[in-house]
Amino acid sequence: MAINEDKLNEFIGRFVGDLGATVAAGNVVIGHRLGFYRALAAGPLTPGELAARTGTDERYVTEWLRGQAAGGYVDRDDDRYGLSEEQAFALADPDGPLYAPGAFLLALGALRAEPRITEAFRTGAGLSWGEQDADVFIGCEQFFRPGYIANLVPSWIPALPGTDAKLRAGARIADVGCGLGASSVLMAAAYPRSTVHACDYHEGSIELARKRAVDAGVADRVSFEAAGAQQFSGDGYDLVTTFDCLHDMGDPLGAARHIREALAPDGAWMIVEPAAGDAVADNMNPVGRVYYGFSTFLCVPSALSQPGGYALGAQAGEAAIRQLVTDAGFTRFRRSSQTPFNNVYEVRR
User: Fold this and answer.
1) Roughly what angle, to the nearest 10 degrees, separates helices 134-151 and 182-190?
2) I want to staple 330 with a disulfide (CB 3.0 to 4.6 A). Which of 45, 163, 175, 325 is the partner?
3) pTM (2 decimals)?
4) Residue 121 CB: number of other CB atoms within 10 A?
5) Is residue 29 a contact partner of residue 105, using CB atoms and an 8 Å limit?
6) Reduced 3-state DSSP string for 6-30
7) 310-315 CB contacts, 8 Å cutoff, 24+ apart
8) pLDDT per position as a tens digit, 281-339
9) Using DSSP, how many helices (H) and how many strands (E) does the chain show?
């Protein structure tokens, strides 16, 4: 076997980077849980000062800071460590438009299912959303919520002609597959004259969503139902939304048909899905790698645990979504908006 040394060294460099990133994920979550990033965002600190401010052990904090600095997540100046404006923007504000620690929380939660996912490769069985680690539910919300904060009300809804004005005047919204209710709460807060009926088939998520709505002061205009996308109640909705969940369903066609029946004649269905091209080659990039990895551990197992026969995966692409809604009887479909992580589609009857 002839080894090309340059190619081998290139691969080893990639491997070392991936190994460091894998271990760093746990350290980022530690920083998230213990408030290290928030403390550092206020100004540079020594390890002892950070430990004192957060009620933690200085020796552990010292090692954590050095690793964070080696990875470029924290800036180092001799024995003082701090965050640049850009690092603080991504690491220190869970309510901002970008919060990187949430993605790592989701990743670590998903990896805890590795033995069961390995066995599922052998058997073809699924693993339902409710069987995942609890950090998956929290991490998923924290991964996607910043993008919703940045885009949902400012740009995604206004990109659907007439919808923003209708919601401001008072309309009915169904948020299908709502998870912990981040999108439901955002819409209820932005459109106080409208009502939101949210559903998710995972009872545990619905319980947390109800608490989030109470905490946000919008519980009077958001209702939650533990129901699948094929059975949620109500009709005559002016807007139906599905956020990053259609590809997780075993029967997305059944969901699409039910949504069509539940829509008002002039209503719109907004589909938000992970950014993806139609060809596999289109997704051979860092974002595609992230989504294929999550899809292997979360999306495909979830779909295979449900009846319906679909397992679209997180990189299904626009053509597959278009075909699905066309098969369900919809006649109008277009990409209305996009971000580096999401494609947004407008669907009408």
Assistant:
1) 30
2) 325
3) 0.93
4) 10
5) yes
6) HHHHHHHHHHHHHHHHHHHHHHHHH
7) 310/249, 310/250, 310/251, 310/252, 310/253, 311/250, 312/246, 312/247, 312/249, 312/252, 313/247, 314/247, 314/274, 314/276, 315/274, 315/276, 315/280, 315/283, 315/288, 315/291
8) 999 999 999 999 999 999 999 999 999 999 999 999 999 999 999 999 999 999 999 99
9) 15, 9
